[in-house]
Model the fold of this input.
Amino acid sequence: MQSRVGRVTVLRMPVVWTDRHRGHAPEGGYWMGVRLAGDEEPERGDVLRDQLLGAGATIVSAPDLGPDPVLAVHDAAFVDCLRRAHAEWVAAGHLSEPGQPHVVPYIFATPGFSARARPSRPPASIRAEIGLYATDTMTLISDGTYRAACAAVHASVHAADLVADGLPAAYAAVRPPGHHAGPAYFGGSCYFNNAAASAQHLRARGFASVAIVDIDAHQGNGTQEIFWSRGDVLYASVHVDPAAGWYPHFVGYADEIGEGDGLGATLNLPLPPGTGDHEWLAAIEQLLRAAQQHGSEALVVSLGVDAAADDPESPLRVTAGGFRAAGALLGTLGLPTVFVQEGGYDLPRLGSLVLEVLHGFEERHG
Done:
């Protein structure tokens, strides 16, 4: 799967990308009530593409697949709310009163507060309705957010199609990321769940069982929730320990293993802050053993590189060599594999760290 031109390694797997990501421009968010600059902005998607092109990657444009791939893993009312949100925000006059260009919930439907709410009586304003689905005030909605989030799903599903059609691997270089988006909620810079949509599409294309291995620095609470009661899709994650105060805070503990038909099909391996290559790679080996025991016929990798030592968004200390070794471990499964981009916010090194994983995979898988 890999060739070398002189001393340069050329990526052979296709990279699925779309310029529709640029419509999602939240321009930061609110953390503890304070407006902060954003690290998940249009520049991130363009920097990633440019760095991959510089490494000789072949870029494949993602088609527009409509709403069906999104609805395959998300609640219809939730999807419709995100579709309408910005237009209704503008129609309500919020560009001038209070002067906010992005959709920001001001009220949240926590269980106790909304206990008497009825589906037949939805909130009368979008500023309240969005609070039915939002989990934080960092994940703002701009004019093009819905289209960009759909495009990220489309790219991830198209990568799954390429693999289902016979390619050994494909990589969806997407933003916004997705693994914190659940069946009917969004947050953590995620709106729709790209990895879940990819896994669901692989199931629809005939793979009897699929493993999602999440190596992002943070646990994919949304992906876990989507497949919590299903045994056909394994969710296995290594991430910084939420008990140490890291996102997503409420979930991601080792005793979360699924329920019903999905009992035992969820595996969480939380690691303490400061963990480096050795322990991180040992955890990935454990995740891959779980995929083998699961009998997975295809693999989706939630490829976050924010576990890197210099990334500002996590306390893990993984090196470039660690990421390349992780890719090699993933390649040992020998499964048809879809990589879906999640986190990674050290922009000068984003593409190079992604390439370490992909090159390591191709060296071993090939």
